[in-house]
Amino acid sequence: MATQRVLPQSKETLLQNYNKRLKDDIRSILDNFTEVIKTAKVEDETQVSRATQAEQDHYEMHVRAANIVRAGESLMKLVSDLKQFLILNDFPSVNEAISLRNQQLRALQEECDKKLISLRDEIAIDLYELEEEYYSSSCGQWDGVELPLCEVFHRRDSWGSPTTTSDPSNSSMEDSERPIAQETMPHHLNGHGSSTNEQS
Amino acid sequence: MANDRLRALEDVEKEIAVVLQCAGTIILELSKEKHNASLLDRQLNQFQTSINRVESELSSQIRYLTQVATGQPHEGSTYSARKDCQMALNRAEYARVKLGELGRTCELMLDPQT
């Protein structure tokens, strides 16, 4: 009794109602079934004629059978109400269901982002190679606005600075250093000449 | 945990159907001139077992609900996780669309007939 909970009146009333319905329905099924079995017994002595007694027994059995079915359907309705009450008010299981769903969604999101990051890394590698090929060919020209990725890595290697990127905000600073850098630019790895020097 | 209790209630529904079916079978058997005593015994045992099981299971569920019900609405939600996941899927879809466009552009450039 020390763990007696104080529920709101409506919830407590509702649960008491469920208990009552359960008891009543079970009692109804058992009583009506017992009475049907008793009525099935053939009596030797009857107060009215056999035909009347048979008719009365027939009608009584119909009513009791209908009562058994009604009590069964009432029990099904009770089970449905209990399911609804459980879904809405069983907080431990609702919390568990929410946390499980959150875990699944977060796992899916992390997997998605991991795959996107690996895709980005692969595309960056391919882009580096493509830019290297393009800008070291006779068709490639710098317009001085965006630094190609291959040049970024070349400069980073020559300066030893890890922070150089193809960011436009850095390009203005690097533009002023370009004439000096172009003279000191190492030969391309594939053996192409420094075509930008020739073009400038 | 929630699924176990809901599954138990679904089993209770099946048991209620068994109760009614056993009652009907017993009365049908009694209506015949010659009764099959073993069938009657089996069906009666099944009837009693099922109805006791229904009562005990429903009582325990109501007892459990009396202990855990608070009367307050639950305010938990999976909205934030769903939104984050939806954004991640949108990012992936956008990347897929852009890569598709890039692929088509490359094919157009490489195709000598166009």
Task: Produce the secondary structure layout.
The complex is a heterodimer of chains A (about 200) and B (about 110).
Chain A: H1 9-39, H2 50-89, H3 91-135, H4 149-159, H5 168-184, H6 195-199
Chain B: H1 2-31, H2 37-68, H3 79-110
Helix pairs in contact in B: 1-2
Subcellular location (chain A): Nucleus
GO cellular component, one term (chain A): mediator complex
Protein name (chain A): Mediator of RNA polymerase II transcription subunit 22
List keywords for this structure.
heterodimer; A: 200 residues; mainly alpha; rod-shaped; disordered C terminus; B: 114 residues; Methane Monooxygenase Hydroxylase, Chain G, domain 1; 3 helices; elongated
Briefly characterize the structure.
Chain B: One of its GO terms (biological process) is regulation of transcription by RNA polymerase II. The complex is a heterodimer of chains A (200) and B (114). Chain A is mainly α and 200 residues long.
Provide an overview of this structure:
The complex is a heterodimer of chains A (200) and B (114). Chain A is mainly alpha-helical. Helices cover 74% and strands 0% of the residues of chain A. Chain A is rod-shaped and about 120 Å long. The relative contact order of chain A is 0.06. By secondary structure, chain B is an all-alpha fold. Helices cover 82% and strands 0% of the residues of chain B. In chain B, helix 1 packs antiparallel against helix 2 (37-68). Chain B is elongated and about 95 Å long. The mean pLDDT of chain B is 91. Chains A and B meet through helix 1, helix 2 and helix 3 of A and helix 1, helix 2 and helix 3 of B. Chain B: Belongs to the Mediator complex subunit 11 family.
The oligomeric state of the chains shown is heterodimer
Question: Element order, helices and strands of chain A?
Answer: HHHHHH
Give average pLDDT of chain A, whole number: 78
Largest interface: A-B, 53 and 46 residues
Q: What would the CATH topology of the largest domain in chain B be?
A: Methane Monooxygenase Hydroxylase, Chain G, domain 1
InterPro entries (chain B): Mediator_Med11
Subcellular location (chain B): Nucleus
GO biological process, one term (chain B): regulation of transcription by RNA polymerase II
Main location (chain B): nucleus
